[in-house]
Amino acid sequence: MRSKDVLADGFGRIEGLVRSVVEGADEALLTRRVGREANTVAWLVWHIARVQDAQVAPLAGTEQVWTARGWAQRFGLPFDDEANGYGQSPDEAARVVASPADLLGYLHDATAATLAYVATLSDEDLDEVVDEAWDPPVTRGVRLVSILADVLEHAGQAAYVRGVLES
């Protein structure tokens, strides 16, 4: 198995994990919190897609699907198009309201773009340094693993939140 195949397998699991959290939920469940400042399922799922999209698009040299495919307009969130959830306050996170279909649709498009990009990579591409601001510098492969770890962590959080809300 090649390195890009391992990455593709990992990114390919995200949609199924998130789908099991979102399907059958209504907007009320998706926007409820388990605590006053806790993230909602809607915010977590939106953030999963945004993180993947906002970080993979620059690596791929493409426009984010958030804007290119009209998701920013469809969601109509009160944030700049560049917002992806990092550094948002609990009040800002609570403003993410979306239907299950939109959350899953955007995640699907973001994941498809990621998988299309990963399919083009060689092992040499994965060794290329893409960020020298860190010590050691970050390679393309390390950045992709970091993105994958982040979105999988948030998928687990979303599943936990839904489970708590339904218990």
TrEMBL record:
The record's listing under SUPFAM superfamilies reads: DinB/YfiT-like putative metalloenzymes
InterPro entries, per database record: DinB/YfiT-like, MST-like
- Designated name of the protein: Chorismate synthase
Native source species: Cellulomonas gilvus (strain ATCC 13127 / NRRL B-14078) (Cellvibrio gilvus)
